[in-house]
From TrEMBL:
SUPFAM superfamilies: Thioredoxin-like. Gene3D superfamilies: Glutaredoxin. This is Thylakoid membrane photosystem I accumulation factor. It comes from the Bacteria.
Amino acid sequence: MIMSVCLPWLARCRRFLVVTFTFTVLLLGLWGTLPLSLADHGTAIAALEDDRYDGNIFVVYAGNGSLVPPRLNLKESFERELPVILVYYLDDSKDCKQYAFIVSRMQEFYGRVASIIPVSVDGIPDQKRFRRDEPGYYYSGGVPQTVILDKNGKKIFDAQGVLKFEVVDDVLRDLFDLLPRSESVELKQRTYNEFNSELVD
């Protein structure tokens, strides 16, 4: 008789303990992740003035995801006899972040007639010698670095640092036999937010 009275009570207690235990584990599991979602563990704000990695610089700072990966590699550009603009960069360099928009402008004006190849220096193999059709051949050790090759692969420009669009534009105008800026419409830079600017008449 005692067993018939105690068994239903034990079954209810067992069910209560299982539900309580499950609820406790679930609650503790959620409590462990709650601080992660509520705490400020580094906001997702991209900063132009630091050397932190924020993502691909051409997407984040130039708003241009079409530059990477490049449409053609160096070998294919040589085979098609296209002039080449090589831009060596790092995604975690403030100078490269600032230069990303200028590279995007190069693509806007010259992307149909030249092969623009952004090269992440992290992707250059660590070797002593490179072939002429490998980006490591032209890299001199700093970022950002801009190298312009004519359609025959001859280097006609090589500079490091954040260059003004006009500096590169002058070289490209000469390469494509365009009017010099003094006889053409001068493009002026106008900033419309922290990261991007536009060239206007």
